[in-house]
Design brief:
The complex is a heterodimer of chains A (307) and B (238). With 307 residues, chain A is α/β, with parallel strands linked by helices. In chain A, 34% of the residues lie in helices and 22% in strands. Chain A has 10 helices and 12 strands. Chain B is mostly helical. In chain B, helix 1 packs antiparallel against helix 7 (167-178). Classes of the chains: A alpha/beta (307), B mainly alpha (238).
C-alpha cells in the first residue's frame, strides 16, 4: 500500500536528493533512497540493454504542420550505440525528430531507418509502401522515450507502471516483470517506492520512475525529450547524473533534446545544432561548446548561457 | 396526512417497480453509453458515424413517444413485448444516448500525453483504451453519470402511461380512491426523493473509489474506512 505518511499528496517532498557534491559533504541519504556519498551503486550490474543497438538514419525527411515546415529534407545519421544531443532554439524541429522516431507524429516525406529497417515504410512485393499498424508495433519494440512531463499512468501504482508494458506487450510473466521492475527501481534509487502512487512522488522521483518504465521495455534506442525541463532546479542534477550513468553503463543508442548544455556535454558523443529544421553545425561536444564555427551556434549558446 | 400511508403496500409495490425500471434502464444505458461512446472516438469514420446516428436519434426523441412506439406501434407490425421490457428499452436507449456523449467527452478529455505514453510503451490500441484511457476517463464520467442516473429514475414516471404499476401509477390510484390529492402526491415526491438520495450515495461511493485509484486521495483515509471496508478490491483498471 502507498505510504501516505512519507509523502503527503498535496506537497512535494522537500528532502529530494540534492546535488551530489552536497550529498558527499553531508554523507546523508537522499529521500529517494539513493545512498549518497558512500558506496556508489555498481550501475553496470544493472539490467540495462547490452549490444545490438541499431543506428538511425534520416533521409530527406520532411515534416509539416499545416503550412509550417518543421523539418526540411533533413539528412543525418546516428551510429549504433552513439549518444547524440540535439540543441537549438525552440521550434527548430528537435523534438519533432524524437516524436517521429516514437511514431507520435506521422512522416510527410523521406525515409527514417532504424538499423536496416525503415520505420514508416514496409516492403510489399518489392515495393516500399506506408507502414501499417503491425509494422509500427514491431518497429516500436526497439524504441523507448522519456517525456518532459513524465506521463506516468495515474491509474496505476509505480510497480504497475513498470510491469504493464513488459507483461502486455513483451509477454513477460508477472513474476519476471516484477523482478525486473524491482531491479530498475533499485537502479534509479527508488526501491522503496514500489507500491507508491505516482501522485505521491516529487517531480524528480516521477521522472526516475519514467526512466525505469522506458528501460523496462528493453529499448535499443532511447529518446530523451527535455527530461529535466519540468523539474525544480535542485532536482535536475540528480536525474541528469542518473541518465549519464545509465548511458555509460549500456550500449543503448541515445537521442537527447535538452536546453541544459552541461548535460549535453556530459552525455553525448556528438552534438547537432539545429535551426529552422536543418542542421547548422555538428561535432563533438568539446568543439560545439568550446569553439563553434558557425555564428548561429555562437549566438544560440550565448543566449542560452546568459539566461 | 398519514391516511395515505394506509396504502403503503401499494406504494412499496410501486416503488419496487420504479427501482426495477431504474436498475434495468441504467444498466442498458451504461452498456450503450460505453459502446457508442467508444465508437465516437474510433479512428474509423463509419464507426464514428454509428455513434452520431445513435446519439442524435435517441437524444432527439421524447422517451414517452419512444415508449408509445414500442408499446403501441411495434405490435401492429408483429413485434409484441412485455410492458416492463418495453419501458426498460425506451429508458435505456434514451439515456444511453446522453451517456454516450458523456463517455466520448470523458475519453477525449484524458490528456493527450497519456495517450502518447501508451504509444511509447507500444501498447496496442485496445490495451491503450482498456488499461490506461478508460480507467482515467471514468473519473470524469461519474459526476454526469450521477445526474443521468437520477434523471432516468425520475423519468421512469412516464411508464405509468402504458399501464405499468410504478410509483406514479399507484399514486394516481390512491389519489382516486382516497381523494387525498395533496398528501398522496406529497408522499410520492418523498419516495422519489429517497430513492434519488440512495442512488446519489452509490455514485459518491464510486467517485471516491476512482479518486483513490487515481491517487487523488490517500488510499487509507480514516473517514472512508467504513465505506472502503465493505468493498475490497482494485479499481476499475485493476
Amino acid at each position: 500500500m502507498p505510504q501516505s505518511d512519507t509523502a503527503p499528496e498535496s506537497s512535494e517532498p522537500k528532502d529530494e536528493a540534492p546535488a551530489p557534491s552536497l550529498e558527499k559533504a553531508t554523507g546523508r541519504t537522499g529521500a529517494d533512497g539513493v545512498p549518497a556519498g558512500k558506496d556508489p551503486k555498481p550501475i553496470d550490474a544493472a539490467p540495462l540493454p547490452k549490444g545490438g543497438a541499431p543506428g538511425i538514419t534520416f533521409e530527406k525527411v520532411v515534416k509539416r504542420f499545416g503550412s509550417n515546415v518543421v523539418l526540411r529534407e533533413l539528412d543525418f545519421t546516428v551510429a549504433p550505440g552513439e549518444r547524440v544531443t540535439l540543441i537549438g532554439p525552440s521550434g527548430s524541429g528537435k523534438t519533432t525528430i524524437l516524436r517521429l522516431l516514437m511514431t507520435l507524429e506521422t512522416l510527410n516525406e523521406g525515409v527514417i531507418w532504424i538499423g536496416d529497417q525503415t520505420l514508416w515504410h514496409m516492403d510489399r512485393g518489392g515495393k516500399r509502401v506506408a507502414a501499417n499498424q503491425k509494422h509500427l508495433h514491431e518497429m516500436r519494440k526497439q524504441v523507448g522515450m522519456v517525456f518532459q512531463q513524465f506521463n506516468l499512468f495515474p491509474n496505476m501504482n509505480v510497480l504497475r507502471n513498470l510491469t504493464e508494458g513488459p507483461r502486455r506487450v513483451l509477454g513477460v510473466s508477472q513474476d519476471e516483470a516484477v523482478e525486473r521492475a524491482r531491479e530498475l527501481l533499485e537502479l534509479v534509487g527508488l526501491a522503496d517506492k514500489l507500491n507508491a502512487h505516482p501522485t505521491q512522488l516529487s517531480g524528480g522521483q516521477q521522472q526516475r520512475v519514467a526512466v525505469a518504465r522506458a528501460l523496462a521495455m528493453q529499448p535499443k534506442v532511447l529518446l530523451l525529450d527535455e527530461v529535466t525541463s519540468a523539474l525544480d532546479p535542485e532536482l535536475v542534477v540528480g536525474v541528469q547524473d542518473l541518465l549519464r550513468d545509465i548511458a555509460n553503463a549500456s550500449d543503448i543508442t541515445l537521442l537527447c533534446v535538452t536546453h541544459e548544455m552541461n548535460f549535453a556535454r556530459d552525455i553525448s558523443n556528438r552534438v547537432l545544432m539545429f535551426d529552422q529544421g536543418q542542421i547548422v553545425e555538428e561535432g563533438p561536444p568539446e568543439q560545439i561548446f568550446g569553439e563553434p564555427s558557425e555564428q548561429r551556434t555562437r549566438d544560440f549558446l550565448q543566449a542560452v548561457l546568459a539566461s | 396526512m398519514f391516511d395515505v400511508l394506509d396504502s403503503h403496500e401499494e406504494l412499496l409495490k410501486g416503488a419496487w417497480i420504479t427501482i426495477q425500471l431504474t436498475v434495468g434502464g441504467s444498466l442498458l444505458a451504461l452498456v450503450l453509453a460505453v459502446l457508442f461512446g467508444m465508437a465516437g472516438v474510433s479512428s474509423s469514420r463509419w464507426v464514428r458515424g454509428l455513434n452520431r446516428v445513435y446519439v442524435e436519434f435517441f437524444r432527439g426523441t421524447a422517451t414517452l413517444v419512444l415508449l408509445y412506439w414500442f408499446f403501441y406501434a411495434l405490435p401492429l407490425v408483429g413485434f409484441k413485448f412485455a410492458p416492463m421490457f418495453t419501458a426498460i428499452m425506451a429508458l435505456g436507449l434514451n439515456v444511453g444516448a446522453y451517456g454516450a456523449e458523456v463517455v466520448r467527452g470523458a475519453i477525449i478529455s484524458v490528456p493527450k500525453a497519456q495517450y502518447e505514453a501508451t504509444i511509447a510503451l507500444n501498447l496496442t490500441p485496445t490495451q491503450r483504451m482498456i488499461r490506461v484511457i478508460l480507467p482515467q476517463a471514468v473519473s470524469l464520467m461519474l459526476p454526469p453519470f450521477g445526474n443521468l442516473l437520477i434523471e432516468l429514475m425520475k423519468g421512469t414516471a412516464v411508464v405509468s402511461l402504458i399501464t405499468i404499476g410504478d410509483l406514479t401509477f399507484r399514486g394516481k390510484e390512491i389519489q382516486q380512491s382516497t381523494g387525498e390529492t395533496a398528501w398522496t402526491f406529497f408522499w410520492i415526491l418523498v419516495f422519489y426523493f429517497v430513492i434519488a438520495q440512495v442512488l446519489q450515495l452509490f455514485v459518491r461511493f464510486a467517485e471516491r473509489r476512482v479518486d483513490r485509484m487515481l491517487g487523488r486521495r490517500p488510499s487509507r483515509d480514516t473517514s472512508l474506512a467504513t465505506v472502503s471496508a465493505s468493498a475490497a478490491g482494485t479499481g476499475v483498471g485493476g
